[in-house]
Write a structure and sequence with these properties.
The structure holds two protein chains of two kinds. Chain A is built from 17 helices and no strands. By secondary structure, chain A is an all-alpha fold.
Chain lengths: 347, 678
């Protein structure tokens, strides 16, 4: 299929939707708000989010409702992208969106694990069942992780979580790991059905993402979870741009954190660990900022490709995450300057 | 052709007989139950202070709603299980319910049956599970079949542990690439496309470490049997033999279940029917009022079946029930009787189409007859064809006869087909062709202007009838304001006539309009705007505005503007009737031309047949919808409010088979709940 025919329409739509992204001024103003109510009111009155907050009274809003609204807005916008694709491309995009669904599934599983399911409003899981074949009704009946896994039967995730059902391994950690790894496996499989050039771009992009996530995983696994190198390696994402399997293995088998850091430095990822004392807190943000710039560069380089849609999805996700962070900062009463440091977007 | 008159029935009975009385009422199936406490507390409720009523009168101050709702979940589960075990498809039969029985005693008997049958069923289930387990063992042993090892010794090693596991290909490649660091011997045994089966041997002391590593690879362990002291091949054989044995056992057990089935199938069907009845009874009880010894129940009964219900109750329970029958008309306005439409058989299917718009109110004129006739007229005029009409007619009759769930639709289709045939004769059209039969009236294509003008003429007649209906309805309701000054009342009607006259004058080329005409039109518009104060003046009541008077006048001002516009657009809207008549002929001409162009006998015949099928399906559907549109928007909006409550008596057996139709989903949902007429 001709590239122009495939992407012209959706790229125009994306350009139109990008108009609704917040600008720096919005960010500065948002950081200045001193309560969640003020923030909601600001979003409602001064930003493109007003149409989603229409039915919401900012004076009574709490954090959860605001987050729900933002998530629903995301679902809404992502749906619009789907309309422009069909067949393998549509499947790929859906696979891409599974990321958000998995995040919701993990939260839901955690609620079940903590027995706090009933307190949580159903609305906060906007993504579950949206892009996969998961039945939310079935999930809601689950009262244990085992039920949860069984309820996933028939969905894309089942083959990945089914092995956990041996009576010994139904724990939250393994479930989360399996769900996460299923995402990359699904993405990989569905990207293989794209056209050659798109496949190459996606491989490059997902490789970049995997490099950073793998590094972060190995670092954390070593520092906090004390996992054996074999386990660490087995849980890594089997993709990479700069870090191939043997390099990944080397990283996993590094004797201590210092060795890991110096190896990462050699690979060009030293920025993740600079300024030691705060590196754990800011690692996530550094990863996201790095990805943000990489993704922007990629999408400029390949204007007529699938990466435009991928980029829109990520940017939307970044923005929503930033708003969540701002909410969080307001709650802990951080000054705007302090709070700005936690945002993906440089303000 | 009307709305059936209702009577209000009050039933006061002894609580000890309550279930039986309710059962009889449900079986009778003609009482539309309403909330009894609301009825009793309404102002106009009187119980004559006669001797037989004295006890009832004493209880009135102590009445409360029925709250202790019984829970049938255990009974339900047991009956469901029995039905499952015996593989029955129970029906609710009248004879099971008419008998005199105590539900609890009857159920005890069923429980006894269940406990025996249940244990048999469970032993079958156990065997089935064991077969399942053995099958898994066989499946796993097949991987080892080619090796001549002693399976028991392999699995029960003291210092080493042997395991068969399944991994996904991706994860297996991770394992392979890092093999030198894994403290186990791993052998690939089988490749199954997506997955790989491997055997792992590891010292017992390292088992835990290895398991952690395999866990991170998301492994599935394939269990192996422990108690076989032979090679896998022999073990498989032994397992297969034991499965055969299990199957034999299951068969014999199944036979004894079959025995039970023959003995108890009818009892279980009864239990099913009676449980359904009991659930219904509980449902009805929620709208009762309960005193110390008596219960009170109210509902509407159609006049025609009131006496029968009364005599049935009296015959069975005699002195235990007090029945009060009252006429509805003089009752308080808060009490809305339900609407039961009664039309002759041929019009009855059209009731469903009326109800799709709304159920007529109890005191409204039933529009079904007018709807049916005008709808048939419009459909026929748009889709006039003797042959195609015959097809629709036959399809409708067939549906009505052979597919009960579509009977209503079949009835409508048959009438439509008939109407289409009549117009086909008038237009001289037979399967689209205009050469087979002569036209009795006109050929649409020959006189296009006449057809279009005729359609508008028909529209005018229908709209005028709509006005008359509306005025009649307002009169029945004693709504002076709407009847005299409303835009669908006399004022609107006169305005419409004047408007038509003006348009006619304009079309006939008379220059200038007589000033008297203009001024009277203006006067009517003023009347319509001031309808509220005017009618207030007439009836001598004070004018009450919903909002501020200003809002009222602004709204009415726009209302009048809309009246003027819609009077024209409603009328012109009917031009589509003519357009579709032309369209019908035109579509055929297109196919006929194509058929001619193919120039081969069979080919053109085939094309004509396909053409006709397309015309019937596609145009039939469009015309069906367009006619409905005309009815709903141009006519119903004039005179039909449709805010009534449908008559839904409590019943357990569907009285009229096949009365389910396109509203099936909707109404079946409503059937399950008791209706409150308030």
């Amino acid at each position: 299929m001709d590239r122009v025919a495939r992407f012209a329409a959706v790229n125009t739509k994306i350009k139109a939707m990008e108009r609704d992204f917040l600008n720096s001024e919005h960010y500065i103003e948002m950081l200045r708000q001193r309560s969640i109510q003020d923030l909601a009111a600001y979003l409602k009155e001064n930003t493109p989010y007003s149409k989603f907050l229409n039915d919401i009274n900012p004076e009574t809003i709490n954090r959860t409702t605001l987050e729900e609204v933002l998530k629903r807005n995301m679902v809404n916008n992502l749906d619009k992208l789907l309309y422009f694709f069909h067949d393998n491309y549509r499947d790929f995009l859906k696979a891409l969106f599974l990321k958000y669904e998995i995040a919701d599934l993990k939260n839901f599983a955690r609620d079940i694990y903590n027995n706090s399911k009933s307190e949580v409003a159903v609305d906060s899981y906007s993504f579950i069942g949206k892009y996969s074949k998961v039945s939310f009704d079935k999930l809601q009946k689950a009262s244990s992780l085992r039920d949860f896994i069984l309820a996933l039967e028939g969905s894309e995730f089942y083959e990945y979580v089914k092995p956990l059902l041996d009576g010994k391994r139904e724990n939250l950690f393994r479930l989360e790991m399996s769900l996460d790894s299923s995402y990359f496996s699904i993405i990989k499989k569905s990207s293989e059905k794209l056209d050659k050039s798109d496949r190459a771009i996606i491989e490059k992009w997902e490789g970049m993402v995997s490099d950073l996530y793998n590094l972060q995983w190995i670092y954390r696994g070593k520092k906090f979870y004390m996992l054996s190198p074999e386990e660490l390696l087995n849980y890594t994402i089997d993709m990479g741009e700069r870090i191939n399997f043997s390099r990944r293995r080397e990283l996993c088998y590094s004797k201590n954190l210092e060795e890991l850091k110096s190896k990462a430095d050699q690979l060009g990822f030293g920025f993740l660990f600079k300024k030691d004392e705060t590196s754990d807190i800011f690692m996530e943000r550094r990863i996201n900022r790095f990805l943000f710039h990489k993704l922007r560069a990629l999408s400029r380089r390949y204007p007529m490709s699938i990466i435009q849609s991928v980029a829109y999805t990520w940017f939307l996700d970044f923005e929503v995450r930033d708003i969540f962070s701002i909410v969080e900062c307001i709650r802990y009463n951080l000054s705007p300057e302090e709070a700005g440091k936690f945002l993906i977007r440089a303000v | 052709m009307a709305i059936e008159k209702m009577k209000l029935m009050g039933i006061i009975g002894n609580i000890s007989k309550m279930n039986k009385i309710l059962r009889l009422i449900i079986l009778n199936g003609s009482l539309h139950v309403i909330n009894s406490l609301n009825r009793i507390s309404s102002e106009d409720f009187v119980l004559p202070p006669s001797e037989e009523n004295i006890k009832a009168l004493e209880e009135i101050p102590y009445l409360k709603p029925y709250t202790s709702r019984l829970d049938f979940s255990r009974e339900e589960e047991i009956i469901k299980n029995l039905i499952g075990i015996f593989n029955l498809r129970p029906e609710i039969k009248r004879e099971y319910l008419g008998q005199d029985y105590e539900f609890d005693d009857f159920m005890k008997q069923i429980f006894n049956v269940y406990s025996t049958v249940h244990s048999i069923a469970e032993s079958i289930e156990d065997r089935k599970k064991s077969i399942e387990q053995k099958r898994i063992y066989i499946e796993n042993l097949r991987y080892l079949e080619k090796y001549k090892v002693n399976i028991g010794k392999l699995v029960n090693m003291k210092l080493l542990s042997f395991k068969l596991i399944r991994l996904s290909k991706e994860n297996y490649s991770k394992l392979k690439k890092n093999y030198e660091n894994i403290p186990a011997v791993v052998l690939k045994i089988a490749d199954e496309g997506k997955n790989v089966v491997v055997a792992s041997i590891t010292p017992k002391s390292l088992e835990e470490t290895v398991e952690r590593i395999f866990s991170s690879l998301n492994f599935t362990e394939l269990p192996l049997p422990e108690n076989f002291n032979c090679s896998p091949k022999v073990a498989i054989k032994e397992l297969e033999e034991s499965i055969a044995e299990d199957k034999k056992f299951i068969d014999s057990m199944q036979k004894s279940i079959e025995n039970y089935k023959n003995n108890y199938a009818i009892e279980i069907e009864k239990a099913y029917a009676r449980l359904e009845m009991e659930k219904k009874v509980e449902e009805v009880k929620t709208s009762l009022a309960i005193g110390k010894k008596l219960f009170f129940m109210f509902g509407f009964v159609p006049e025609s079946s009131a006496e029968q219900l009364k005599s049935e109750l009296k015959a069975t329970f005699g002195e235990d029930v007090i029945i009060i029958l009252e006429d509805v008309d003089k009752k308080s306005p808060g009490l809305t009787p339900p609407t039961k439409l009664r039309n002759i058989a041929i019009l009855r299917p059209f009731e469903e189409m009326v109800k799709m718009y709304g159920v007529p109110a109890y005191n409204e004129k039933d529009p079904t007859a007018f709807f049916a006739l005008s709808y048939l007229l419009l459909f026929g005029a748009m889709f006039g064809d003797l042959g195609q009409g015959l097809v629709l007619f036959t399809a409708g009759i067939l549906l009505r006869l052979f597919k009960k769930s579509m009977a209503v639709f079949g009835g409508i289709l048959a009438s439509l087909g008939l109407s289409s045939m009549i117009f086909g004769v008038l237009y001289g059209s037979f399967f689209g062709s205009e050469e087979v039969i002569p036209a009795l009236l006109v050929r649409p294509m020959a006189d296009i202007n006449l057809i279009l003008a005729g359609a508008v003429g028909l529209g005018i007649i229908l709209i005028i009838l709509g006005f008359l209906y509306s005025i009649l309805n307002s009169y029945i309701e004693k709504n002076l304001e709407e009847a005299l000054f409303g835009r669908n009342g006399i004022a609107g009607f006169v305005f419409y006539i004047l408007l038509l006259y003006m348009v006619y004058g304009f079309a006939a080329g008379k220059s200038g309009l007589p000033p008297a005409l203009l001024s009277s039109t203006a006067a009517i518009i003023v009347l319509m705007v001031f309808k509220k104060p005017l009618s207030g003046r007439l009836t001598g009541t004070k004018v009450l505005y919903h909002d501020s008077p200003m809002d009222y006048y602004i709204e009415e001002g726009f209302g009048v503007l809309e009246t003027v516009l819609s009077a024209m657009s409603n009328t012109i809207s009917f031009i589509r009737v003519g357009a579709f008549a032309l369209n019908h002929a035109g579509l055929y001409i297109a196919f006929a031309t194509m058929a001619e162009m193919t120039n081969s006998g069979m080919g053109s015949l085939l094309l004509l047949v396909i053409g006709n099928i397309i015309i019937i399906c596609l145009e039939g559907l469009i015309v069906f919808i367009q006619a409905l549109r005309l009815e709903y928007y141009e006519l119903f909006s004039k005179y039909f409010r449709g805010d009534g409550i449908e008559y839904e008596p409590v019943r357990i057996i569907k009285a009229i088979p096949g009365s389910i139709s396109f509203r099936q989903k909707h109404s079946s949902k409503r059937n399950t709940s008791v209706n409150y007429a308030f």
